[in-house]
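I have been asked to look over a protein record a colleague put together. Thanks in advance; the entry in question is below.
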Amino acid sequence: MSKLVAGMASSHAFTLLDPEKWDEYRERNRAGYKRRYGVEPPVHPKIAEESLEENRRRHQHVSSGLDFLRQKLKEKKPDALILVGDDQSENFKEDNLPQVALYVGEEFLATERGQSGGICYRSHAGLARDLLEGLVERDFDVSFSNSFANSELLSHAHAPILKTIAPEADIPVVLLFVNAIHMPAISPGRCYRLGKAIREIIDRRSGAERFALYASGGLSHFTGGYPWRYYQGEYTYGSISEEFDRRALEFMRRGEGEKLSGLSTRDLLDHGDIEMRSWITLLGAVGKTPAKVLAYEPFYRAIMGMAVTYWELEN
């Protein structure tokens, strides 16, 4: 029988940039907010408390965590990596915004925003099809795509993670899209059940293939692209809900990730953790396995809380 051998999760976006670039990219993000809402967002006061030297030092914890995940992929040698993340009007536009979607094509190009071409990755189309059929049979209304425009994977929750964690493109990939940014969005409880269904499909799959599951997104961040029209809380642009992040990670560390399935969409929205849906999907698949939390660092200059986590599923 096939099996899931590892779970992995990390933040993306600024997480994958050197701290020297954070100010430039934060200003771009602020400009995006102004274009959307006609006013400049506030500058968070905690930015002034961070130095570049300190950011470099703390960001090394995050980078080391990503190195750990990259090494684990090499050790485990999975037959495919299932990568879960949201799409922010990159591959899926307003004419088609699915809550859950699978890519079932044969290959794709992992492409950076504003660029063309990219690294070619193979898909594990067989697993993607099995997941599609199995999820639909379990009453999940899953959309699917056979191809992207120009074969380019543009989603920043997927493409940069692949380039970071599997730069040699030597592992077949299954792309899973779980809506987070577009309201209304799939509930945390539904995400957890989605993960449980994925694990069940893998466990019942014939053959002896080994798979890894990676959740990309979060943690807490209030950026220019946040769905502010739906937000009713007290946090402002650039805030980080540190306590919420740390509590969620502690549940994962204790193998109590199922508790996060009881959160509401409003809970995630109020704490800047809408992308935690990807993590909750993974938690449904890993069950009560305790997480190894490799790093958590809140960076106000990077407008986000960064985290890297690993689940060992073979011991």
Summary: The chain has a mean pLDDT of 97. The two ends are 17 Å apart (CA to CA).
